[in-house]
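Course assignment 3, question 2. Fill in each field.
Student: A.L.
Task: Predict the tertiary structure for the chain below.
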Amino acid sequence: LTIKLRGIPDTIAAAACSFETVEGACQAVILAIQTAIPVARIELLNVAQVRCCNAYSKLTLPETPLLLLEFHGSEAEVAEQSKNFRELAADCGSGDFTWTTRPEDRSKLWQARHDAYWSVRSLRPGAGVVATDVCVPISRLADCVVETEEDLKRLGLVAPIVGHVGDGNFHCSLLCDLEDAAEMARGDGEIITTGTRAKKSSAGYDLTHLFVGAEGTLGIISELTIKLRGIPDTIAAAACSFETVEGACQAVILAIQTAIPVARIELLNVAQVRCCNAYSKLTLPETPLLLLEFHGSEAEVAEQSKNFRELAAECGGGDFTWTTRPEDRSKLWQARHDAYWSVRALRPGAGVVATDVCVPISRLADCVVETEQDLKRLGLVAPIVGHVGDGNFHCSLLCDLEDAAEMARGDEFMHRLVERAQSMDGTCTGEHGIGQGKQKYLKAELGSEALDAMRAIKRALDPQNIFNPGKILPQA
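Answer field:
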């Protein structure tokens, strides 16, 4: 392969030009081509994409249809090109027009465009991103983009748009939950297919989630299609201590609101940190602690870590350490994975009763603090670890199973924990499930009508009651 090297222009200018409508932006591009204004690069961002870029890249671009442009040439030529395009754009309903030749400002503007995909991902953490593109004659680009936006609105979907408007090509980054497919064996041996390998489907009832969430009471999964995720270029693990649980939770809320793309985030209370230090030979600060993980390129991970550190400092954050060394990352997360065993080691011979609840993130700090107060009042030990990004936390209650008085206090603690979560508009379990132990809390949480609907589904799919009988549903 023989390639051609291009010289670096004497002067490079980057510009951003807002428009009232997508049609106006596209018309400006057509006129620029017709009048031979030598635009080196030109990109169209719709309103949704501009909002993503502003949130992710800390910009203040006007949240209207936007053109990002680049001009090359001598200093005088670049100034003339920018002036000509600005005048032309004004005839097409343009608003703000800013341009710069400063390398750092140019890099910041174009980096926001290059990070468009990641900015979309951060808009809805956990969702899948399906990227697609089409290309039309430039004269039809505005029509195609506008009709696409109308489709998205009608279908209730989110898919920010960015276009190489100079050649009529544009891309949609569609955010959606990627459904897993499954085959289920019913009680009579019949096999049910609940989905396909398609990334999305609106065909019939959502049987996949129905069966997966049924704790084995509706059938046996005989085949499962899962999605594999790529390994990021760079992974960083971090630990950040806080003066209070409230401060740690507030930092998480702010990180979500400001779209810092945290890949993993866990809260450990003081008791759990002490257990991890003792069991895993660590020296973590024995205060409320967040363990975090960041994914992306080397520069992105460094930026994410820096942004979170600054945000955490405003919430009472103290020590903040981060690393990309695999052995250091593994050691830190292994301590989290060994949390259960570290609790067992705290009181050899005692039983461990593990339970969980989930509350809105805005109430997580209240729930954890009140839970710690209950433990202190009842004279119990139950270190806490939380998937703080979704408001879910776990207690590992240590009890002498032969001590009736301690077990009674443990029952009181668990009952109050569930009632507290439900009073905060939360749930009696975020991950562990209902089983038998939490059946008595379902009616208060979902109502008798929901339970009747579940019983009807159970009778229809497992009429002989052979799958996990006696689980989930309390006796009517």
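Instructor remarks: The two ends are 75 Å apart (CA to CA). The chain has a mean pLDDT of 88.
Grade: pending
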